[in-house]
Amino acid sequence: MKKIFLYIALVSLSVVSCRDDENPNMVEEVSIGTQNSYDDEAAAKYLDTHYLDAKGNIKEFVATDTVNVKLSDLNPVTLPSGVIYVVRPGAQPNPATPIGGTDVISLMGNITTYVASNTDNKVGYYSPFGFKNTIAGAGVPDLDPAYYYVKTSVLTKATAAVAKERSYYEIEGFREALQKFGAYDLPDFENYNLQGVIIVPSRAAFARDPHFNYVGISLRNRSFIFNFQVYKSRARNMQTED
Exposed, middle or buried by CB within 10 Å (0-12, 13-18, 19+), for 47? Predict the structure, then answer.
C-alpha cells in the first residue's frame, strides 16, 4: 500500500514538473514587500520608457528619440498609496468639472494590467492584459464603471459576503488619483484627446484579495495603467442611481 502511495506521489510530482517546464514564464509569487518593490521599480521604468503621442496615447520611447518627452519628464506625482499620475500639458478642460468620489463618470481610454516581476534579473512589467479599451472598441466612453464606484444597490443584492464589500469591485488607487483631474463636458461622439496617465500598483488595486471577475483572469498582484479622458462627471442621485 505504501508503494502505491509513493508511486502516486512521484507521478504527481512528475506532472507538476512537466507543467513548470511547459510554462517557463510562470511567475512564482513573492512576499508582499517584494511585490510592492517590484511594482514601484516597474512603474519608474515605465515612466522612463514611454511618452504620449499627439492624441495622448501611451507609446514606447526609443533612445534615439529627440522630439518626444518621456513620461518621467512630465512631472509625475506619486501619492502616499504608491499611485502615480501624470497630467498631460495642454490637454486639461478649462473650465473643468470637479470629480467627486461617488460621481457618475464617463471615461474614455485604454486600461492595461500587468504583473511586475523579476524575469532574467530584470524587474519590469510582464504579462500585459487588456482590461478595457473604449478607443479601439465601441469608441464611446465607459459610463459609470464599477471599478470607479460600485452602486450600493449592487452591494445590497449580493449574496456572498465578499461581494458586499466595495473593495471587491473598486480599484481604490484609480478612484483616488482620478479626483486629481477635472472632467470635460463632452458628448459621447466627440473625438478623444487623452488627459493623462494613472499607474496603480497592485497594493492600491486588488492586491491579493478576492475581486469581481471583470475580464476572466485573476487580477491578483496586478498593477494597472490608465490612459484616459473623463468626458463627463456629475453628482450621483443617491436616491435613484445608487
Answer: buried
Query: CA-to-CA distance for 206 and 203, rounded, in angstroms?
Result: 7
pLDDT per residue over 40-49, tens digit each?
Answer: 999 999 999 9
Strand, coil or helix: 18: helix
CA distance 216 to 7: 36
Contact predicate 113/219, CB 8 Å: yes
For the domain bounded by 30-234, which CATH number is listed? Answer: 3.10.50.40
Query: CA 27, 219, 175, 128 torsion: positive or negative?
Result: positive
Q: In terms of C-beta density within 10 A (0-12 exposed, 13-18 middle, 19 or more buried), how is residue 20 classed? A: exposed
This prediction's pTM: 0.88
Q: Rounded distance, CA 169 to CA 8, Å?
A: 41
Cβ-in-10-Å burial (0-12, 13-18, 19+) of 174 comes to buried
φ and ψ at residue 135, rounded to 5 degrees: -75, -50
Reference 118, options 217, 203, 209, 31; nearest CA is 31
- Summarised one tens digit per residue, pLDDT across range 87-126 is 999 999 999 999 999 999 999 999 999 999 999 999 999 9
Note whether 224 and 57 are within 8 A (CB): no
Residue 21 in this model has a pLDDT that exceeds 90: no
